[in-house]
Amino acid sequence: xxxxxxxxxxxxxxxxxxxxxxxxxxxxxxxxxxxxxxxxxxxxxxxxxxxxxxxxxxxxxxxxxxxxxxxxxxxxxxxxxxxxxxxxxxxxxxxxxxxxxxxxxxxxxxxxxxxxxxxxxxxxxxxxxxxxxxxxxxxxxxxxxxxxxxxxxxxxxxxxxxxxxxxxxxxxxxxxxxxxxxxxxxxxxxxxxxxxxxxxxxxxxxxxxxxxxxxxxxxxxxxxxxxxxxxxxxxxxxxxxxxxxxxxxxxxxxxxxxxxxxxxxxxxxxxxxxxxxxxxxxxxxxxxxxxxxxxxxxxxxxxxxxxxxxxxxxxxxxxxxxxxxxxxxxxxxxxxxxxxxxxxxxxxxxxxxxxxxxxxxxxxxxxxxxxxxxxxxxxxxxxxxxxxxxxxxxxxxxxxxxxxxxxxxxxxxxxxxxxxxxxxxxxxxxxxxxxxxxxxxxxxxxxxxxxxxxxxxxxxxxxxxxxxxxxxxxxxxxxxxxxxxxxxxxxxxxxxxxxxxxxxxxxxxxxxxxxxxxx
RNA sequence: GCCCCCAUCGUCUAGAGGCCCAGGACGUCGGAUUCUCAGUCCGAAAACAGGGGUUCAAAUCCCCUUGGGGGUACCA
Length: 519
Known about the structure:
Helix content: 40-55%
Largest sheet: 3 strands, antiparallel
Structural class: mainly alpha
Distance between the termini: 79 Å
Strand order of the largest sheet: 3-4-7
Number of helices: 21
Number of strands: 11
Shape: elongated
Protein backbone atom coordinates (compact mmCIF):
# COMPACT_ATOMS: atom_id res chain seq x y z
CA UNK A 1 0.00 0.00 0.00
CA UNK A 2 1.36 3.39 -0.91
CA UNK A 3 2.08 5.61 2.01
CA UNK A 4 -0.04 8.71 1.95
CA UNK A 5 0.21 11.19 4.79
CA UNK A 6 -1.45 14.51 5.29
CA UNK A 7 -1.19 17.61 7.32
CA UNK A 8 -4.33 19.65 7.80
CA UNK A 9 -3.69 23.19 8.99
CA UNK A 10 -6.42 25.59 9.84
CA UNK A 11 -5.86 28.87 8.10
CA UNK A 12 -5.07 31.05 11.08
CA UNK A 13 -2.34 33.30 9.82
CA UNK A 14 1.06 32.09 10.88
CA UNK A 15 2.48 28.62 11.10
CA UNK A 16 3.04 27.28 14.59
CA UNK A 17 6.47 25.70 15.06
CA UNK A 18 4.93 22.70 16.83
CA UNK A 19 2.49 22.18 13.99
CA UNK A 20 5.37 22.37 11.56
CA UNK A 21 7.14 19.62 13.45
CA UNK A 22 4.07 17.42 13.04
CA UNK A 23 3.92 18.34 9.37
CA UNK A 24 7.61 17.53 9.02
CA UNK A 25 7.14 14.03 10.43
CA UNK A 26 4.29 13.46 7.97
CA UNK A 27 6.40 14.74 5.13
CA UNK A 28 9.38 12.64 6.19
CA UNK A 29 7.34 9.48 6.46
CA UNK A 30 5.87 10.00 3.01
CA UNK A 31 9.22 10.80 1.44
CA UNK A 32 10.93 7.96 3.24
CA UNK A 33 8.45 5.51 1.77
CA UNK A 34 8.22 7.05 -1.66
CA UNK A 35 4.65 8.04 -0.96
CA UNK A 36 2.67 11.24 -1.11
CA UNK A 37 2.32 14.12 1.29
CA UNK A 38 -0.96 15.96 1.13
CA UNK A 39 -1.96 19.35 2.43
CA UNK A 40 -5.59 19.74 3.31
CA UNK A 41 -7.07 22.93 4.64
CA UNK A 42 -9.32 22.48 7.64
CA UNK A 43 -11.46 25.55 7.31
CA UNK A 44 -14.78 24.21 8.53
CA UNK A 45 -15.30 27.03 10.95
CA UNK A 46 -15.17 29.31 7.96
CA UNK A 47 -15.13 33.03 8.54
CA UNK A 48 -11.75 34.70 8.28
CA UNK A 49 -10.18 35.77 5.10
CA UNK A 50 -8.90 32.56 3.62
CA UNK A 51 -6.26 34.00 1.34
CA UNK A 52 -4.49 36.19 3.84
CA UNK A 53 -4.70 33.46 6.48
CA UNK A 54 -3.41 30.73 4.22
CA UNK A 55 -0.62 32.45 2.33
CA UNK A 56 1.82 32.65 5.28
CA UNK A 57 1.28 28.97 6.04
CA UNK A 58 2.01 27.86 2.51
CA UNK A 59 5.00 30.13 2.43
CA UNK A 60 6.36 28.56 5.61
CA UNK A 61 6.14 25.15 3.97
CA UNK A 62 7.91 26.44 0.90
CA UNK A 63 10.60 28.09 2.96
CA UNK A 64 11.39 24.85 4.75
CA UNK A 65 11.23 22.95 1.49
CA UNK A 66 8.38 20.69 2.54
CA UNK A 67 6.73 20.29 -0.80
CA UNK A 68 3.28 18.79 -1.01
CA UNK A 69 2.09 16.45 -3.74
CA UNK A 70 -1.56 17.33 -3.46
CA UNK A 71 -3.29 20.31 -1.96
CA UNK A 72 -3.80 24.03 -2.41
CA UNK A 73 -2.23 25.53 -5.52
CA UNK A 74 -1.06 22.16 -6.83
CA UNK A 75 -4.41 20.36 -6.94
CA UNK A 76 -4.60 16.60 -7.22
CA UNK A 77 -6.98 13.73 -7.94
CA UNK A 78 -8.82 13.86 -4.62
CA UNK A 79 -9.70 17.54 -4.60
CA UNK A 80 -11.00 19.90 -3.57
CA UNK A 81 -8.49 20.18 -0.75
CA UNK A 82 -10.43 22.74 1.25
CA UNK A 83 -12.91 21.30 3.69
CA UNK A 84 -15.18 24.26 3.16
CA UNK A 85 -15.63 23.02 -0.42
CA UNK A 86 -16.28 19.42 0.46
CA UNK A 87 -19.63 19.78 2.12
CA UNK A 88 -21.45 17.44 -0.23
CA UNK A 89 -19.12 14.60 0.75
CA UNK A 90 -19.85 15.12 4.42
CA UNK A 91 -23.56 15.38 3.78
CA UNK A 92 -23.62 12.19 1.75
CA UNK A 93 -21.69 10.35 4.41
CA UNK A 94 -23.94 11.64 7.16
CA UNK A 95 -27.04 10.60 5.24
CA UNK A 96 -25.60 7.18 4.74
CA UNK A 97 -25.03 6.75 8.46
CA UNK A 98 -28.49 8.08 9.18
CA UNK A 99 -30.09 5.67 6.75
CA UNK A 100 -28.23 2.74 8.24
CA UNK A 101 -29.17 3.73 11.75
CA UNK A 102 -25.58 4.43 12.68
CA UNK A 103 -26.33 8.05 13.36
CA UNK A 104 -29.38 9.90 14.54
CA UNK A 105 -30.89 13.33 14.76
CA UNK A 106 -30.61 14.72 18.23
CA UNK A 107 -33.12 17.30 19.40
CA UNK A 108 -31.70 17.66 22.87
CA UNK A 109 -31.58 21.22 24.14
CA UNK A 110 -28.36 22.65 25.49
CA UNK A 111 -30.06 23.13 28.85
CA UNK A 112 -30.97 19.46 29.04
CA UNK A 113 -27.45 18.40 28.11
CA UNK A 114 -26.02 20.73 30.68
CA UNK A 115 -28.27 19.23 33.33
CA UNK A 116 -27.22 15.70 32.39
CA UNK A 117 -23.61 16.70 32.59
CA UNK A 118 -23.99 18.28 36.00
CA UNK A 119 -25.71 15.17 37.23
CA UNK A 120 -22.84 13.03 36.00
CA UNK A 121 -20.35 15.27 37.69
CA UNK A 122 -22.22 15.04 40.93
CA UNK A 123 -22.07 11.30 40.76
CA UNK A 124 -18.37 11.47 39.83
CA UNK A 125 -18.78 9.51 36.68
CA UNK A 126 -17.92 10.22 33.10
CA UNK A 127 -20.66 12.09 31.29
CA UNK A 128 -22.16 10.16 28.42
CA UNK A 129 -25.05 11.68 26.57
CA UNK A 130 -28.52 10.24 27.11
CA UNK A 131 -30.13 9.20 23.86
CA UNK A 132 -33.61 10.53 24.41
CA UNK A 133 -34.05 11.46 20.77
CA UNK A 134 -33.75 7.81 19.87
CA UNK A 135 -37.07 7.22 21.60
CA UNK A 136 -38.87 9.75 19.45
CA UNK A 137 -41.48 8.41 17.04
CA UNK A 138 -41.50 9.51 13.42
CA UNK A 139 -44.52 11.62 14.13
CA UNK A 140 -42.85 13.38 17.05
CA UNK A 141 -39.78 14.08 14.96
CA UNK A 142 -41.91 15.51 12.16
CA UNK A 143 -43.63 17.62 14.76
CA UNK A 144 -40.40 19.00 16.19
CA UNK A 145 -39.10 19.78 12.76
CA UNK A 146 -42.34 21.51 11.88
CA UNK A 147 -41.79 23.67 14.94
CA UNK A 148 -38.53 24.71 13.41
CA UNK A 149 -36.31 22.79 15.84
CA UNK A 150 -33.01 22.13 14.09
CA UNK A 151 -31.37 18.92 15.20
CA UNK A 152 -27.70 18.06 15.22
CA UNK A 153 -26.60 14.70 13.89
CA UNK A 154 -24.90 12.45 16.36
CA UNK A 155 -22.94 9.33 15.63
CA UNK A 156 -24.37 6.37 17.49
CA UNK A 157 -21.38 5.00 19.35
CA UNK A 158 -21.52 1.22 19.71
CA UNK A 159 -21.15 1.34 23.46
CA UNK A 160 -20.72 -2.34 24.00
CA UNK A 161 -17.32 -2.35 22.30
CA UNK A 162 -13.78 -1.85 23.29
CA UNK A 163 -11.79 0.08 20.74
CA UNK A 164 -8.30 -1.29 20.36
CA UNK A 165 -5.72 -0.06 17.92
CA UNK A 166 -2.01 -0.41 17.49
CA UNK A 167 -0.50 3.04 17.50
CA UNK A 168 2.82 3.25 15.69
CA UNK A 169 4.43 5.11 18.53
CA UNK A 170 2.29 4.27 21.56
CA UNK A 171 1.74 0.61 20.93
CA UNK A 172 -1.61 -0.98 21.68
CA UNK A 173 -4.07 1.50 23.11
CA UNK A 174 -7.49 0.55 24.39
CA UNK A 175 -10.58 2.65 24.99
CA UNK A 176 -13.93 1.68 26.37
CA UNK A 177 -16.58 2.82 23.90
CA UNK A 178 -19.10 2.72 26.70
CA UNK A 179 -17.50 5.85 28.05
CA UNK A 180 -17.73 7.80 24.83
CA UNK A 181 -20.48 10.33 24.33
CA UNK A 182 -22.16 10.22 20.93
CA UNK A 183 -20.22 12.90 19.08
CA UNK A 184 -22.04 15.53 17.07
CA UNK A 185 -20.91 14.99 13.51
CA UNK A 186 -23.03 17.63 11.82
CA UNK A 187 -23.97 20.93 13.42
CA UNK A 188 -27.49 22.28 13.46
CA UNK A 189 -26.44 24.62 10.66
CA UNK A 190 -25.37 21.69 8.51
CA UNK A 191 -21.62 22.13 8.87
CA UNK A 192 -19.57 19.05 9.73
CA UNK A 193 -17.39 18.80 12.82
CA UNK A 194 -13.70 18.05 12.89
CA UNK A 195 -13.88 14.38 13.89
CA UNK A 196 -16.30 13.63 11.11
CA UNK A 197 -14.83 15.73 8.33
CA UNK A 198 -11.42 14.30 9.10
CA UNK A 199 -12.61 10.73 8.82
CA UNK A 200 -14.53 11.33 5.61
CA UNK A 201 -11.55 13.09 4.06
CA UNK A 202 -8.89 10.71 5.31
CA UNK A 203 -10.89 7.92 3.69
CA UNK A 204 -11.49 9.86 0.48
CA UNK A 205 -7.81 10.78 0.23
CA UNK A 206 -6.82 7.19 0.97
CA UNK A 207 -4.58 8.36 3.79
CA UNK A 208 -2.53 5.40 4.97
CA UNK A 209 -0.89 6.92 8.01
CA UNK A 210 -2.36 9.51 10.29
CA UNK A 211 0.58 11.11 12.06
CA UNK A 212 -0.55 13.76 14.46
CA UNK A 213 0.13 15.21 17.88
CA UNK A 214 -0.84 13.18 20.92
CA UNK A 215 -3.59 15.54 21.98
CA UNK A 216 -5.61 13.75 19.32
CA UNK A 217 -5.15 10.37 20.92
CA UNK A 218 -8.51 10.56 22.64
CA UNK A 219 -10.19 11.49 19.34
CA UNK A 220 -8.92 8.31 17.83
CA UNK A 221 -11.50 5.83 19.15
CA UNK A 222 -14.26 8.04 17.72
CA UNK A 223 -12.53 8.28 14.38
CA UNK A 224 -11.80 4.58 14.43
CA UNK A 225 -15.47 3.81 15.00
CA UNK A 226 -16.53 6.29 12.33
CA UNK A 227 -14.24 4.67 9.80
CA UNK A 228 -15.74 1.34 10.69
CA UNK A 229 -19.29 2.63 10.37
CA UNK A 230 -18.51 4.17 7.01
CA UNK A 231 -16.88 0.98 5.85
CA UNK A 232 -13.62 2.64 4.98
CA UNK A 233 -10.12 1.31 5.48
CA UNK A 234 -8.80 2.38 8.84
CA UNK A 235 -5.48 4.17 8.55
CA UNK A 236 -2.52 3.46 10.78
CA UNK A 237 -2.29 5.95 13.59
CA UNK A 238 0.87 7.45 15.01
CA UNK A 239 0.50 9.86 17.88
CA UNK A 240 3.68 11.79 18.30
CA UNK A 241 4.40 13.88 21.38
CA UNK A 242 3.51 17.52 21.16
CA UNK A 243 6.21 20.17 21.29
CA UNK A 244 6.53 21.45 24.83
CA UNK A 245 7.00 24.99 26.02
CA UNK A 246 10.48 25.97 27.21
CA UNK A 247 11.18 24.81 30.72
CA UNK A 248 7.99 22.81 31.02
CA UNK A 249 6.17 19.78 29.74
CA UNK A 250 3.16 21.77 28.73
CA UNK A 251 2.13 22.14 25.15
CA UNK A 252 3.74 25.08 23.43
CA UNK A 253 1.08 27.65 22.90
CA UNK A 254 1.04 31.06 21.33
CA UNK A 255 -1.34 32.24 24.00
CA UNK A 256 1.28 31.83 26.70
CA UNK A 257 3.94 33.82 24.95
CA UNK A 258 4.40 36.29 27.76
CA UNK A 259 5.34 33.52 30.16
CA UNK A 260 7.99 32.22 27.76
CA UNK A 261 9.79 35.52 27.82
CA UNK A 262 10.99 34.62 31.29
CA UNK A 263 12.80 31.56 30.02
CA UNK A 264 16.42 32.64 29.56
CA UNK A 265 16.86 31.03 26.17
CA UNK A 266 13.59 32.28 24.77
CA UNK A 267 14.30 35.66 26.24
CA UNK A 268 17.33 35.85 24.01
CA UNK A 269 15.23 35.10 20.99
CA UNK A 270 12.73 37.77 21.84
CA UNK A 271 15.52 40.26 22.36
CA UNK A 272 16.99 39.41 19.03
CA UNK A 273 13.63 40.01 17.41
CA UNK A 274 13.42 43.38 19.07
CA UNK A 275 16.89 44.29 17.86
CA UNK A 276 16.53 43.02 14.31
CA UNK A 277 12.96 43.46 13.14
CA UNK A 278 12.70 47.23 13.52
CA UNK A 279 15.91 47.63 11.56
CA UNK A 280 14.57 45.71 8.61
CA UNK A 281 11.19 47.33 8.64
CA UNK A 282 9.13 44.62 10.31
CA UNK A 283 7.01 45.29 13.31
CA UNK A 284 6.55 42.55 15.83
CA UNK A 285 2.83 42.42 15.31
CA UNK A 286 1.51 39.51 13.32
CA UNK A 287 3.11 36.71 15.23
CA UNK A 288 6.78 37.12 14.47
CA UNK A 289 7.75 35.45 17.70
CA UNK A 290 9.72 32.29 18.38
CA UNK A 291 6.59 30.14 18.45
CA UNK A 292 6.05 30.81 14.77
CA UNK A 293 8.03 29.43 11.86
CA UNK A 294 8.13 32.87 10.28
CA UNK A 295 10.25 34.16 13.12
CA UNK A 296 13.09 31.86 12.13
CA UNK A 297 12.81 32.75 8.49
CA UNK A 298 12.87 36.47 9.18
CA UNK A 299 15.75 36.27 11.64
CA UNK A 300 17.73 34.50 8.95
CA UNK A 301 17.92 30.88 9.95
CA UNK A 302 18.66 28.24 7.36
CA UNK A 303 15.81 25.89 6.46
CA UNK A 304 18.18 22.96 6.80
CA UNK A 305 19.05 23.98 10.34
CA UNK A 306 15.43 24.32 11.34
CA UNK A 307 14.55 20.99 9.73
CA UNK A 308 17.50 19.39 11.51
CA UNK A 309 16.40 20.81 14.85
CA UNK A 310 12.74 19.98 14.37
CA UNK A 311 13.55 16.43 13.34
CA UNK A 312 15.35 15.91 16.65
CA UNK A 313 12.35 16.84 18.74
CA UNK A 314 11.10 13.42 19.70
CA UNK A 315 13.10 11.48 17.17
CA UNK A 316 16.67 10.30 16.91
CA UNK A 317 18.57 8.39 14.29
CA UNK A 318 20.81 6.52 16.71
CA UNK A 319 22.88 7.13 19.83
CA UNK A 320 25.30 9.58 18.23
CA UNK A 321 24.14 11.33 15.11
CA UNK A 322 22.94 14.87 15.65
CA UNK A 323 23.89 16.77 12.55
CA UNK A 324 21.82 15.49 9.68
CA UNK A 325 21.24 16.73 6.19
CA UNK A 326 17.72 16.64 4.85
CA UNK A 327 18.65 13.59 2.78
CA UNK A 328 20.02 11.76 5.79
CA UNK A 329 16.88 12.47 7.75
CA UNK A 330 14.61 11.39 4.92
CA UNK A 331 16.41 8.14 4.34
CA UNK A 332 16.57 7.24 8.02
CA UNK A 333 13.32 8.52 9.41
CA UNK A 334 11.17 5.95 11.12
CA UNK A 335 8.11 6.07 13.30
CA UNK A 336 9.37 3.42 15.70
CA UNK A 337 12.18 5.68 16.78
CA UNK A 338 9.80 8.41 17.83
CA UNK A 339 9.74 8.84 21.60
CA UNK A 340 6.59 9.12 23.67
CA UNK A 341 7.31 12.00 25.95
CA UNK A 342 6.85 15.63 25.04
CA UNK A 343 10.01 17.51 24.21
CA UNK A 344 10.81 21.17 24.03
CA UNK A 345 12.50 23.08 21.29
CA UNK A 346 15.93 23.98 22.58
CA UNK A 347 17.00 27.32 21.12
CA UNK A 348 20.63 26.66 22.01
CA UNK A 349 20.63 23.42 20.13
CA UNK A 350 18.91 25.02 17.18
CA UNK A 351 21.69 27.60 17.14
CA UNK A 352 24.34 24.94 17.14
CA UNK A 353 22.70 23.27 14.13
CA UNK A 354 22.45 26.68 12.54
CA UNK A 355 26.15 27.38 13.12
CA UNK A 356 27.02 24.10 11.55
CA UNK A 357 24.89 24.47 8.45
CA UNK A 358 25.90 28.07 8.03
CA UNK A 359 29.49 26.89 7.97
CA UNK A 360 28.66 24.60 5.05
CA UNK A 361 27.45 27.46 2.89
CA UNK A 362 29.45 28.73 -0.06
CA UNK A 363 30.55 32.36 0.09
CA UNK A 364 28.10 33.16 -2.69
CA UNK A 365 25.17 31.64 -0.81
CA UNK A 366 26.18 33.38 2.36
CA UNK A 367 26.28 36.67 0.57
CA UNK A 368 22.96 36.01 -1.10
CA UNK A 369 21.37 35.35 2.26
CA UNK A 370 22.89 38.42 3.84
CA UNK A 371 22.20 40.99 1.13
CA UNK A 372 18.46 41.28 1.81
CA UNK A 373 19.23 42.36 5.37
CA UNK A 374 21.65 45.02 4.22
CA UNK A 375 19.18 46.42 1.74
CA UNK A 376 16.23 46.21 4.11
CA UNK A 377 18.21 48.10 6.73
CA UNK A 378 19.13 50.73 4.18
CA UNK A 379 22.84 50.06 4.51
CA UNK A 380 23.15 49.52 0.78
CA UNK A 381 20.85 50.44 -2.05
CA UNK A 382 18.18 48.20 -3.46
CA UNK A 383 19.19 46.69 -5.77
CA UNK A 384 22.80 46.95 -4.67
CA UNK A 385 25.33 48.54 -6.97
CA UNK A 386 28.30 46.49 -8.09
CA UNK A 387 30.52 48.33 -5.65
CA UNK A 388 28.16 47.69 -2.76
CA UNK A 389 27.86 44.09 -3.69
CA UNK A 390 31.61 43.75 -3.78
CA UNK A 391 32.00 45.39 -0.39
CA UNK A 392 29.24 43.24 1.05
CA UNK A 393 31.02 40.16 -0.28
CA UNK A 394 34.22 41.13 1.46
CA UNK A 395 32.43 42.01 4.66
CA UNK A 396 30.57 38.71 4.73
CA UNK A 397 33.83 36.87 4.13
CA UNK A 398 35.59 38.83 6.86
CA UNK A 399 32.74 38.26 9.29
CA UNK A 400 33.19 34.54 8.71
CA UNK A 401 31.32 32.43 11.22
CA UNK A 402 30.42 35.50 13.21
CA UNK A 403 27.39 35.51 10.94
CA UNK A 404 25.37 32.76 12.56
CA UNK A 405 22.02 33.88 11.30
CA UNK A 406 21.83 36.10 8.28
CA UNK A 407 20.59 39.07 10.25
CA UNK A 408 23.91 39.03 12.12
CA UNK A 409 25.35 40.81 9.12
CA UNK A 410 23.73 43.91 10.57
CA UNK A 411 26.38 43.84 13.29
CA UNK A 412 28.78 44.85 10.58
CA UNK A 413 26.91 48.04 9.80
CA UNK A 414 30.00 50.15 10.47
CA UNK A 415 31.46 49.04 7.17
CA UNK A 416 28.58 50.59 5.29
CA UNK A 417 27.79 53.76 7.19
CA UNK A 418 29.70 56.99 7.57
CA UNK A 419 28.36 57.62 11.04
CA UNK A 420 29.11 55.07 13.71
CA UNK A 421 28.20 54.58 17.31
CA UNK A 422 31.10 54.20 19.70
CA UNK A 423 30.89 51.61 22.42
CA UNK A 424 31.56 53.94 25.36
CA UNK A 425 32.94 51.36 27.71
CA UNK A 426 35.30 49.95 25.13
CA UNK A 427 36.39 53.41 24.19
CA UNK A 428 37.30 54.20 27.77
CA UNK A 429 39.06 50.91 28.25
CA UNK A 430 41.06 50.76 25.05
CA UNK A 431 41.55 54.29 23.80
CA UNK A 432 41.38 56.56 26.81
CA UNK A 433 44.31 54.93 28.52
CA UNK A 434 47.99 55.48 29.09
CA UNK A 435 49.70 56.87 26.14
CA UNK A 436 47.24 55.60 23.59
CA UNK A 437 45.81 58.88 22.33
CA UNK A 438 49.27 60.28 21.71
CA UNK A 439 50.34 57.09 19.93
CA UNK A 440 47.27 57.18 17.74
CA UNK A 441 48.07 60.74 16.75
CA UNK A 442 51.54 59.67 15.68
CA UNK A 443 50.32 56.56 13.92
CA UNK A 444 47.50 58.16 11.95
CA UNK A 445 49.80 60.04 9.57
CA UNK A 446 51.65 56.82 8.88
CA UNK A 447 48.40 55.24 7.84
CA UNK A 448 47.71 58.22 5.67
CA UNK A 449 51.10 57.84 4.02
CA UNK A 450 50.74 54.13 3.35
CA UNK A 451 51.22 53.34 -0.29
CA UNK A 452 48.76 50.50 -0.63
CA UNK A 453 45.63 50.20 1.51
CA UNK A 454 45.19 46.59 2.29
CA UNK A 455 45.24 44.42 5.38
CA UNK A 456 48.75 43.01 4.96
CA UNK A 457 50.32 46.42 4.38
CA UNK A 458 48.51 47.90 7.37
CA UNK A 459 49.61 45.06 9.55
CA UNK A 460 53.24 45.41 8.49
CA UNK A 461 53.14 49.12 9.16
CA UNK A 462 51.64 48.61 12.59
CA UNK A 463 54.25 46.07 13.58
CA UNK A 464 57.01 48.43 12.50
CA UNK A 465 55.41 51.22 14.49
CA UNK A 466 55.06 49.17 17.66
CA UNK A 467 58.65 48.07 17.39
CA UNK A 468 59.82 51.65 16.97
CA UNK A 469 57.82 52.73 19.96
CA UNK A 470 58.70 49.70 22.01
CA UNK A 471 55.10 48.88 22.79
CA UNK A 472 52.96 45.76 22.61
CA UNK A 473 50.95 45.24 19.42
CA UNK A 474 47.82 44.65 21.42
CA UNK A 475 47.79 48.16 22.75
CA UNK A 476 47.44 49.68 19.29
CA UNK A 477 45.34 46.91 17.84
CA UNK A 478 42.58 47.35 20.37
CA UNK A 479 42.69 51.11 20.14
CA UNK A 480 42.45 50.96 16.37
CA UNK A 481 39.56 48.53 16.41
CA UNK A 482 37.46 50.64 18.72
CA UNK A 483 38.26 53.91 17.11
CA UNK A 484 37.60 52.78 13.54
CA UNK A 485 34.60 50.51 14.06
CA UNK A 486 33.19 51.72 17.36
CA UNK A 487 32.85 48.14 18.41
CA UNK A 488 34.89 45.88 20.66
CA UNK A 489 34.08 42.76 18.67
CA UNK A 490 34.45 41.91 15.03
CA UNK A 491 36.69 40.51 12.33
CA UNK A 492 40.46 40.76 12.38
CA UNK A 493 41.42 44.36 12.92
CA UNK A 494 43.47 44.71 9.73
CA UNK A 495 40.59 43.44 7.66
CA UNK A 496 38.41 45.94 9.45
CA UNK A 497 40.69 48.82 8.60
CA UNK A 498 40.91 47.77 4.98
CA UNK A 499 37.16 47.45 4.63
CA UNK A 500 36.35 50.65 6.46
CA UNK A 501 38.62 52.42 4.02
CA UNK A 502 41.47 54.83 4.58
CA UNK A 503 39.58 58.09 4.63
CA UNK A 504 36.93 56.86 6.98
CA UNK A 505 39.54 55.28 9.25
CA UNK A 506 41.39 58.55 9.60
CA UNK A 507 38.20 60.48 10.21
CA UNK A 508 37.03 57.99 12.80
CA UNK A 509 40.32 57.92 14.64
CA UNK A 510 40.11 61.68 14.81
CA UNK A 511 36.52 61.54 16.04
CA UNK A 512 37.36 58.96 18.68
CA UNK A 513 40.29 61.01 19.92
CA UNK A 514 38.10 64.07 20.25
CA UNK A 515 35.58 62.11 22.25
CA UNK A 516 38.28 60.83 24.55
CA UNK A 517 40.18 64.07 24.92
CA UNK A 518 37.05 66.01 25.66
CA UNK A 519 36.69 64.18 28.96
C1' G B 1 -14.49 13.93 38.86
C1' C B 2 -13.85 10.42 34.71
C1' C B 3 -10.85 8.43 30.48
C1' C B 4 -6.08 8.15 28.23
C1' C B 5 -0.83 8.99 27.86
C1' C B 6 4.02 9.83 29.87
C1' A B 7 8.53 9.61 33.48
C1' U B 8 17.19 8.56 32.04
C1' C B 9 22.26 14.41 33.16
C1' G B 10 19.75 21.66 33.24
C1' U B 11 17.92 20.40 27.84
C1' C B 12 17.36 16.87 23.48
C1' U B 13 18.24 11.86 23.61
C1' A B 14 20.89 6.34 23.37
C1' G B 15 19.36 2.23 26.05
C1' A B 16 13.96 -2.91 24.06
C1' G B 17 17.29 -8.29 31.17
C1' G B 18 23.71 -9.11 31.56
C1' C B 19 27.83 -5.14 26.64
C1' C B 20 25.60 0.44 31.68
C1' C B 21 29.11 1.98 38.85
C1' A B 22 24.48 4.34 32.02
C1' G B 23 26.73 6.47 25.90
C1' G B 24 26.23 11.00 22.64
C1' A B 25 24.84 16.12 21.64
C1' C B 26 23.53 21.15 23.29
C1' G B 27 24.31 24.16 27.38
C1' U B 28 27.55 25.07 31.77
C1' C B 29 32.49 25.28 33.98
C1' G B 30 37.94 24.87 33.34
C1' G B 31 42.16 24.99 29.89
C1' A B 32 44.72 25.72 24.96
C1' U B 33 44.97 28.82 20.35
C1' U B 34 44.33 34.40 19.45
C1' C B 35 44.48 41.56 18.47
C1' U B 36 38.72 41.46 20.32
C1' C B 37 34.55 38.63 19.34
C1' A B 38 33.17 34.25 16.99
C1' G B 39 35.26 29.61 15.88
C1' U B 40 38.31 25.39 16.73
C1' C B 41 40.76 21.77 20.03
C1' C B 42 41.29 19.33 24.78
C1' G B 43 39.19 18.36 29.72
C1' A B 44 35.50 18.34 33.86
C1' A B 45 30.96 18.35 36.58
C1' A B 46 26.11 16.47 35.55
C1' A B 47 20.69 11.58 35.21
C1' C B 48 17.87 5.94 35.55
C1' A B 49 11.23 10.00 40.34
C1' G B 50 10.14 6.68 44.95
C1' G B 51 8.68 1.90 46.86
C1' G B 52 7.61 -3.08 46.19
C1' G B 53 7.96 -7.48 43.30
C1' U B 54 9.76 -11.20 39.04
C1' U B 55 14.89 -12.98 37.99
C1' C B 56 21.21 -15.80 39.11
C1' A B 57 20.93 -10.65 36.94
C1' A B 58 16.51 -4.67 35.94
C1' A B 59 17.29 1.94 33.60
C1' U B 60 15.03 -2.07 30.86
C1' C B 61 9.38 -6.66 32.72
C1' C B 62 4.94 -6.33 36.48
C1' C B 63 2.33 -3.66 40.50
C1' C B 64 1.63 0.56 43.62
C1' U B 65 2.77 5.62 44.88
C1' U B 66 4.23 10.33 43.39
C1' G B 67 4.78 13.77 39.68
C1' G B 68 3.80 15.74 34.76
C1' G B 69 0.59 16.11 30.57
C1' G B 70 -3.56 15.45 27.15
C1' G B 71 -8.76 14.85 26.57
C1' U B 72 -13.55 15.26 28.50
C1' A B 73 -17.30 21.06 22.93
C1' C B 74 -22.63 22.33 17.75
C1' C B 75 -12.93 24.02 18.63
C1' A B 76 -9.20 21.86 15.69
